[in-house]
Amino acid sequence: MGQLEHKAAIVTGSSRGIGAEVAKLLAAEGAGVVVNYRQKAPRANKVVSGIEADGGRAVAVGADLTSPEGPAALVDAALESFGSLDVLVLNASGGMETGVEEDYALKLNRDAQVNMLTAAAARMKPGSRVVFVTSHQAHFINTVPTMPEYEPVARSKRAGEDALRARIPELEEKGITLVVVSGDMIEGTVTATLLDRANPGAIEARREEAGRLYSVEEFAAEVARMALADVPTGHTEYVGGSDYLSA
Fold it and tell me: How much is the pTM?
């Protein structure tokens, strides 16, 4: 039996990439997983089918986290499908997409994260864990400059992290812990691809600076590990990018 047997998890933004891999890993530990998508239902359904084929439990739920009803829909799905909510992985992020409103990055990376936490924490029991996924470029934005193309997103994600950390005392009263996972640029993610498109050579340049970059699968394994790790609330787990840690 896995460590999450008879428990349930929500992974936001999990129809592809890091989120999808985290969902698979949590399911492999026994969790019933809510696989969240915004528009691409076929992709999310494929993730669910893969989990079920491996003997796991999962359900795909379409929800826009920036909408008033999105977070509640995910929480309701976890409770209705699996009977509880024990792990919340705040993985969804964005802001570099074309055609979105000017303040979309802040709406998604700060406001939606807080709203999702509020909806989930109201139904989570003592011993539950919240994991916020961010990047070194965002986590260290106040001390280490980043690419101009990414700075608005980085600042919005740092604002989201700060807003979540401000809730730690309230979460502690409920027996819920919050852990942050901060990673260097990850090979194969949408964000890295968009950055490389906006700033050709960005991935290769960062790879040379860092020595190596983690893959989606490697980083997802660290995120999933933090959903179970015996660490104190407020802990930050750093993945890759040792030069950031010494800056």
Answer: 0.95
